[in-house]
Write a structure and sequence with these properties.
heterodimer; A: 112 residues; 0% helix; B: mainly beta
């Protein structure tokens, strides 16, 4: 049973436009959410996170939104750049980071 | 940021043999490391939580006798795939969390691709 889901396996966006990546979760106990970026043949790298006490966290071009009632979070990248092309995973944690659960990833392609 | 190194990055073995994958935190101490497995086009599946000095905690459905985890020091955790079979072929990734940071951020190794012939 997958507790964190990314229903879009891929997304293609024009350079300069906004990229919106979505993530849904089922476990209401999750209280911390993270986004990771992964290039081929490399381990994921941390991008941005949000605690369940917030509904928005911004870091430069990256903003994560959390809608607890809908059990949904999204990552916005504005403006998108070709270097952003990668696979993005959302992850969720609870119980003081004892476990992390990942979505299946969304492959973002930013076209020049 | 913190560095986690995984070795080997790619290993090919014959069916029935055992393979050990190492995960090291290079510039920090990690009392807890996590082992994940990734199937093609699927999510990172948490296999087990490795705790320094104690037994690993395995997720439901993961055979502890098949996937032996040892976390003998604060900087090293190992995953041994015993009596490997072709269905064990996968991408295995370890991660560690900085104990001093209250962000929950995980640092990942580069991953190890296992191919069992």
């Amino acid at each position: 049973d997958q507790q964190v889901k990314q229903n879009s396996p891929s997304l293609s966006v024009q350079e300069g436009r906004i990229s919106i990546l979505n993530c849904d979760y089922t476990n209401s106990m999750f209280d911390y959410f993270l986004w990771y970026k992964k290039y081929p043949a490399e381990g994921p790298t941390f991008l941005i996170s949000i605690s369940s006490i917030k509904d928005k966290n911004e870091d430069g071009r990256f903003t994560v939104f959390l809608n607890k009632s809908a059990k949904h979070l999204s990552l916005h990248i504005v403006p998108s750049q070709p270097g952003d092309s990668a696979v993005y995973f959302c992850a969720a944690s609870w119980n003081n980071f004892n476990k992390f659960y990942f979505g299946s990833g969304t492959k973002l392609n930013v076209k020049p | 940021g913190a560095v986690v190194s995984q070795h080997p990055s790619w290993v090919i073995c014959k069916s029935g043999t055992s393979v050990k994958i190492e995960c090291r935190s290079l510039d920090f101490q990690a009392t807890t490391m996590f082992w994940y497995r990734q199937f093609p086009k699927q999510s990172l599946m948490l296999m087990a939580t490795s705790n320094e000095g104690s037994k690993a905690t395995y997720e439901q459905g993961v055979e502890k006798d098949k996937f032996l985890i040892n976390h003998a020091s604060l900087t090293l955790s190992t995953l041994t795939v015993t009596s490997a079979h072709p269905e064990d072929s996968s991408f295995y990734i370890c991660s560690a969390r900085l104990n001093t940071r209250d962000t929950g951020e995980l640092f990942f190794g580069e991953g190890s691709r296992l191919t069992v012939l």
